[in-house]
Input
Amino acid sequence: MTKSQYMVRSFGMDIKIIKEAEVIRLTGLSKDEMKEWRSRLEEGKHWVRVPSNRPKKLWAISWTEAGVGALSKGADLGELQADLDKNLEKPKEFFGIVKGKFTNKRIILCDVEYDKVKIEANVLVRDSANFVVGMRVPLRSDGGRWVAAKHPRFGGRW
Output
């Protein structure tokens, strides 16, 4: 069982659930599309909120095996269920080179190496303070936007 999969005891049964971020990464669906699918499917049977100390609307969302099956059938993602059952190789990693920073601390400008083509794109980050121009940054695609997969702890260093 991977880090993103874990067991939940519900009504005396162990149910394997998968974090929504992992399902998004595997399916390629955006967060907005996943929200739309959640409104169509049943909470508790297909997806669950993982309790925490935060308000209920901020609880993390995880998908059950039944939910992943319904999602794969409804979104024509037949291979999704098979991919979730076996260990997957890591997805293709994308890298960008920081070209510039903005006054908005949540965005940096990067040259993204994407399908053997370099494109210039704005990348979302938590805080751009530790990013340095010329730094190589691992990225992931979240729908139509790029997000930094890892953030440096110190200025210019991991």
Notes: DSSP finds four helices and nine strands in the chain. The domain at 5-85 is CATH 1.10.1660 (Multidrug-efflux Transporter Regulator; Chain: A; Domain 2). The two ends are 28 Å apart (CA to CA).
